[in-house]
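BUG: 3D viewer hangs when loading the predicted structure for this chain

Environment: internal workstation, default settings.
Expected: structure renders.
Actual: progress bar stalls at 90%.

Input used:
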Amino acid sequence: LPNGLSVTLANGSCQISGTPTTLQNTTTYTIKAINAAGDDIATVSISVDLDTPKNLTATEGNASVDLTWDAVSGATGYQVYYAKQSFDGISNDNLSSHASSNGGSLLQNITDNNKTVTNLTNNTKYYFVVTAVKGDTEGAPSAVVDATPIVVLHKPLIANLPAKHLILNSSITAFAFNNTGG
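Structure tokens produced before the viewer hung:
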């Protein structure tokens, strides 16, 4: 069995319990029970995978999107996939090709549970998924989220105007001021 799991007999049934501590591809195990009435054999297939990143959120910025998600226990990194078409129904093996053929990309070697995706086109909807990675093993993708980068407007700021002394019944030149806002 995978490290951290064990087989016990309880109430006449075999039970596999514990907390797996290493990743493992699908492996089939045979369990044989013997008593005075005879024996029985059962097989069970077990794989130990990385958990899926949960609670992925996206916050729009100017030509960027900030992504955050819950950290995955045991993961050594993350991969972010983004595209202009949704990832719904796309298998793990096709995430990268879907992203690149739909105006997006794959961002690798992310060690924190957040990432700012930059150089995006404002007013264009993008779709995002995140996977957890440990060694050569990549887990299943998170739920899909979408975001549309926008131009962030700042309120205008008028610089202090200098005092002007005007003479009654005299013509004036318009006051000039700089708009330092965005």
